[in-house]
Specification:
35% of the residues lie in helices and 21% in strands. The protein is an alpha/beta fold. The protein has an 8-stranded mixed beta sheet, sandwiched between helices. Strands 9-3-2-13-20-19-21 form a 7-stranded mixed beta sheet, with helices on one face. A 4-stranded mixed beta sheet has the order 1-12-11-10, with no helix packed on it. β16 and β17 (299-304) form a beta hairpin. α1 packs parallel to α6, α1 packs parallel to α10 and α12 (425-445) packs antiparallel against α13 (453-468). The longest helix has 25 residues, at 93-117. The two termini are 35 Å apart. This is Glycine/D-amino acid oxidase-like deaminating enzyme. One of its GO terms (cellular component) is cytoplasm.
Amino acid sequence: MHTDALSNFWSTTLDERPASRPRLTAHVQADVVIVGAGFTGLWTAYYLKRLAPERAIVVLEAERVGHGASGRNGGWVVGNLAGLERHIGDLPLAERQTCCGVVADNVDEVGRVLAFEGIEADFNKGGAIYAAARYRDQIAIQRDYLQHLHELGHSEANCYWLDAEQLSEKARFRNGYGGIYHRQVATLNPVKLVTGLAECVERLGVTIYEQSRAETLAHHKVSTREGSVESPMVVCATEGYADRFLDFKRHVIPVQSLVIATEPLSEARWQEIGMAERPAFADASRLINYGHRTADGRIVFGARGTYYLGARSKADQAIDDGAIRMRRDLLVDLLPALEGVRVEYGWGGSLGLSRNFRPHAILDRASGLATAGGYAGEGVAASHLFGRTLAEMILARDTERVRMPWAFNDASHRQLIKRWEVEPLRWLAAQAITYSYAGEEALMRRDRPAPLLKPALRRLNDRFASIIE
């Protein structure tokens, strides 16, 4: 296993580490200043420059480009939004279908922009399999989820059921009972994307300062230890790393997600597993997991981690042996052909979770402040859509995206995003929910009838989910 600097597999795939960018050591002016050089900040900068090349755009990054979740995630580009039903559940079906079409088409838009700009990020649109593959109760769970997707507005052409035989043609899990195939999902290498996107926006004229932690967000001004940027518009694009900004941290908290990467697999092993089209895959566990086959023939596989008391973001990347073993065991449980395969990397980061799972793009023109986030782990695709939306709102462009129900013009995040409860209530609730989810998982894996306990525990966990989501 590698030390912290080399624990993240994605970071090792670059031909060379990008040179450090300068710190902000002066007082400068800009038309827009963006705090955070991750996906949200860089996509916002990209579309601002593409739409209004004359605008002066400055990006401030506390560490290095892609230091946060943008450089540490599992690489899924999902044509959906976590918590989408919160925004569109009460709309007529035709409007829901339009909204779902926007988030589905966003996957193809990411691929189109990468091709147009020459950003090589191993983008592969292989769809996603949401499998019922470890215990029979997952069949009903996935069937219910497919019905939910259709009722929400996703098309049957994009989301449909695979029977056991159809599933085995795509991937061979331990117990391949069936599952959902979601066509509008791709995978990529997030470090290659964030690195290439930063270089792209710099070519367009955006200025990026690294090692320039924003210490205060005042009215039309962002200050660092050694300098400041005055601007009529400030974009806070910190998501799960808003440690210094209590006003945002009350509304979007960091939750850990931890990932492993195997050694490259032999062709014989891939013949056993399948996945010739390199689909993303997950099962129906509440302990959310996600994986895919990388361009060089490994499996990258992650599962939701924990919540730190006090809403602390994960600064380092390395994870401990216990976290690695848990994910390896879960992966082998899904894919027995991986027994004996070595795990070479293990890393983690913090994703941003808003209360009631409400991803958002918000522009408060009166205060000159904009923000986007709350992606709940699905930020690779959402950050592109929301960064583009923020740019269009800032420039007062009338597009379909700015009229979406998750885009809020002339509004404040304080009014729109519910605050999280105070500590230690948040932490205690997180521990209780984690143990309850694990109990349901253990009970279902026994594959034995429990006519009273199983439904009761499932109802309890559904209730937990409705409270936090």
